[in-house]
Each structure stands twice: as C-alpha cells, then as structure tokens.
C-alpha cells in the first residue's frame, strides 16, 4: 500500500468505498477517468459494462494494476487530449478540488462527453452551513499549502450547469460535504436516491 492509500485507508473503509461503489454503477461504454491517482476506483467498476477505460493523470503511476482494458495517458484535465463528444462516461473523484483551473476543467469534461453521457462526480465543496463555511475559508490558505493545492472552498455546482452538464442527482452529505454523481439526463430513470 502506498502513502496516499495508507493515509486514506480509514476514511476509505468507513465511508468512501461504498460511495465509490454506488457511483461506479453508472460507468459504462467508452470511459475516461481523470486524476485516477492510485486507481482506487478501478476495483468498483463493472468490467462487463466498459468497452475501454482511458485513465488520465498528470504523471503515470507505475504501481497501478487492474484487469480492465486501460489506456494510461499523461495530461491535465484543463487540456484533455481527446476529441469532442467521445466518451460515454467521465469519472472524477477528489480531483476538481485541486485542479488549477476549475471552470476550464469542467468545460473540457463537458466537451469530451457525448450528448446523453454521464459525468460521475464525487468531491468535497464549501459547506452550506454558514459557520462551517467561514471556518473552511479561514483554514483554506494553510490547508491548500499542505494538501497539494486542494481547496476547501470550491462551489462547482453552478459551473456544471453553465458548461452544459445537467445535474441529475446531487447529494450533499451532512458534515462531510461531498456532492456526488451528476449523471446527465440519459441516466435520469436509473437514478433514484434521496
Ligand atoms: C486526491 S488524488 C485522488 C485520486 C483518486 N481519483 C481517488 O479518488 O482516490 C488527486 C489526483 O488528481 C490528480 N490531478 C491533480 N490535478 C490534476 C489535473 N489538473 N489534471 C489531471 N489530474 C490531476 C493528482 O495527480 C492525483 O492523482
């Protein structure tokens, strides 16, 4: 287990793994995962539903192994090296919190997704609670320095819509404040989460 996986292990086991599993049910066809990191999502994917998986990150991670048909690409989400309308699914988990250009990244994701495709998203955002939001804003400058540019104050929801991504289900989980899964309209009937 590498350092990132070791650090994330308690959170992963107690909480994140089941969210990943839920999200991965929407993953199918020609798939792009941006910021795959150590490949934590791979084991939750349904191999039968996936034609090809393209996994992009800023640097290749040699320790990642999977039985899925994966093409590893080095690049950034702000400038995706893919044609318009190419992917059925784009996955991001815990990446848009730390990209340098958030709106450009969302616009690129929207560009490479086919109409009716799904953007499968899990990340933390600025809390709705005014007190907590204030606290997050205070600690954010220090946090982003120690956590590789990770921002605690992002509010990406409106940017999705501005960039052509219709939000089908957004779940703000109390206290931890993750918003999850915004598949596009083709998935509307498949999603039924309170
Ligand atoms: C916190 S890790 C998350 C890894 C994995 N997605 C997960 O859910 O555990 C963030 C990952 O995003 C990648 N990343 C950060 N900025 C990026 C960018 N602009 N374009 C592509 N990947 C990026 C990092 O290299 C890192 O692997």
Distance between the termini: 35 Å
- How many structural units, i.e. domains? 1
**For the largest beta sheet, what order do the strands appear in spatially?**
3-2-1-4-5-6
String of helices and strands: HEEEEHEHHE
- Low-confidence stretches are 173-194
Number of strands: 6
Oligomer: single chain
DSSP summary: helix tally: 4
Structural category is: alpha/beta
CATH fold assignment: Rossmann fold
Provide the gyration radius in Å. Answer: 16 Å
Question: CATH architecture, please?
Answer: 3-Layer(aba) Sandwich
Please tell me what the overall shape is: globular
Bound molecules: S-adenosylmethionine
CATH superfamily: Vaccinia Virus protein VP39
* Sheet of most strands: 6 strands, mixed
Strand content: 15-25%
Which class in CATH terms? Alpha Beta
**Mean pLDDT, all residues:** 83
Helical content, roughly?
A: 25-40%
How would you portray this structure in words?
By secondary structure, the chain is of the alpha/beta class. It has a single domain (3-185), classed as Rossmann fold (3-Layer(aba) Sandwich), CATH 3.40.50. 29% of the residues lie in helices and 23% in strands. The protein has 4 helices and 6 strands, in the order αββββαβααβ. The chain has helices spanning 3-24, 102-112, 130-146, 157-162; strands spanning 29-34, 50-57, 70-74, 87-93, 113-124, 178-183. It has a 6-stranded mixed beta sheet with strand order 3-2-1-4-5-6. Helix 2 links the parallel strand 4 and strand 5 (113-124). It is globular, with a radius of gyration of 16 Å. Residues 173-194 have low confidence and may be disordered. Bound molecules: S-adenosylmethionine.
